[in-house]
Amino acid sequence: MMDKKIGCWSHTTNSSNVYKNLFKSRLIHNDKCLIKYKHKSSICALSFLPTSCSSLPSLLCGDCYGNVKVLKINSYCDNDKPEIQLYSSFNLPKSSNDIPTTINNFITTKSNFCIASDDSTLYYYDSLTLNLQQCFEGHVSYITDVKKNYSDDLIISSSLDKSVRIFHNTLKHSIFVLNVKYPVLSCCFVPYDNNLIITCNDKNKVELWDLRKHSTYVSVILEQGNYQDFQPAMMMPMDESSSSSGSEAESPSIFGGWNSFLTFNKKKKVKKNKFEAIATFEAEYKYNIQDVWNANSQSFVEPFTGHKPSSKIFYIQTTQQAPFSLLTSSTDYTHKLWSIEGQKGLCTYTYKNENSIESIIQCKPVLFDKLLLSGSLDGKVIGWEDLYNTKNSSKISNHSFELKQQHHSPIRSIALSENGDLLASSDPFGNISILSMDLSLMKEEKRKLNNSFKTCKKKR
């Protein structure tokens, strides 16, 4: 396939570490390190492919018409004219009603990537050949989120059909289905434990579920890893075989007629067996909360409060920082950090613009080690450099840095490369920006930010 030159970029991949650092430093002080790519329609999802899939950094872009583009970021060590190239472009299969498919999210593994769409299907592609390997089916409505486990062999997805499904990358049908009472907006695995999953529904409830309490057979399969021996007929109440038989299953509704606590049996009466989450992440929200004295820090600190009742929790994700497993939840206004073990709130991350107006966070945030990145309504990428040492605040902005304005419109999606050295962002008008990331740049932006805060305080 012939490459098509689109724009300009500069990034090294096959040179020595010394040359990489020198070249990166030169880019940081050069405005040309920021490149623009224009797509014909709105970009809904971005994701970088792992470096094991390509010698050059590769960016996946998905739009609202089911089109996927793979952009390769080329670098030439002996040439100052950098470039970005369109490597490949393909469309997802159209739905039965011939309506274009909107791409909601990407996840990438070592050798594959999975696409979540609004046509209730997950598409699993090979990262090298870009061939479609599997279509994961089972959902009957808009897929809101898709994630992977830490061993890259399981995929979990949530949908507006009030269900969460777990797929193995070699099996077409789901190996477990968790039916809940409300549409599910986001889901994820607990780090290094395939039996524990976390969901977020449209009632602002973030809940922890233990699969061992719902299906002994599936939990054994998950623990032993014998996925090839999996038999759908052996699945327990909350899965596919249960929801496909019986009188109630024969009268589907808009969400497929699923019920979160019914076990169907053709011969026996319907047995009601209510399944509940083992824990809930929640905290009371207070509007005019007063700071309290902290004896350890010898200072007044703001107590942790929950999300605003008027805001909608639209995204959750987990991270592992030994020995703790942590969860972040995101609304249009703030991000919050929770301890999974005790379901305890730890910190609130807030961003307000120069006029001290709470800026709406438009896109799903990116979590990379201790770094949290998010896009805002004013077209900026903002970040919190150290999640665990950031002072909790829901009153004032406590972000560590903000990068040079990437867009003149709200940011819709952001993505960070596997090594954390490239940042991509998109807006509703199809504009994509790619920026070289570096810790020295963050520190410089943080220094400027602190100086501006000090200047504002002096004026007051």
Neighbour order of strands in the largest sheet: 1-6-5-4-3
Strand content: 35-45%
Largest sheet: 5 strands, antiparallel
Helical amount among residues, as a percent range? 10-25%
Global outline: globular
Q: Give the count of helical stretches.
A: 4
What is the number of strand segments? 33
The structural class is mainly beta
Quick overview:
The protein has 460 residues and is mostly beta strands. It has helices spanning 17-28, 216-224, 240-243, 439-459, and strands spanning 4-7, 35-38, 43-48, 58-63, 67-74, 83-91, 103-108, 112-117, 122-126, 132-136, 143-148, 154-159, 163-168, 176-179, 184-190, 193-201, 206-210, 262-263, 271-272, 279-281, 292-294, 299-301, 315-321, 324-330, 334-339, 344-350, 366-368, 371-375, 381-384, 401-402, 413-416, 422-426, 431-436.
Question: How would you characterize the overall build of this protein?
Answer:
The chain contains four helices and 33 strands. 10% of the residues lie in helices and 37% in strands. It has a five-stranded antiparallel beta sheet with strand order 1-6-5-4-3, with no helix packed on it. A four-stranded antiparallel beta sheet has the order 2-33-32-31. The protein is mostly beta strands and 460 residues long.
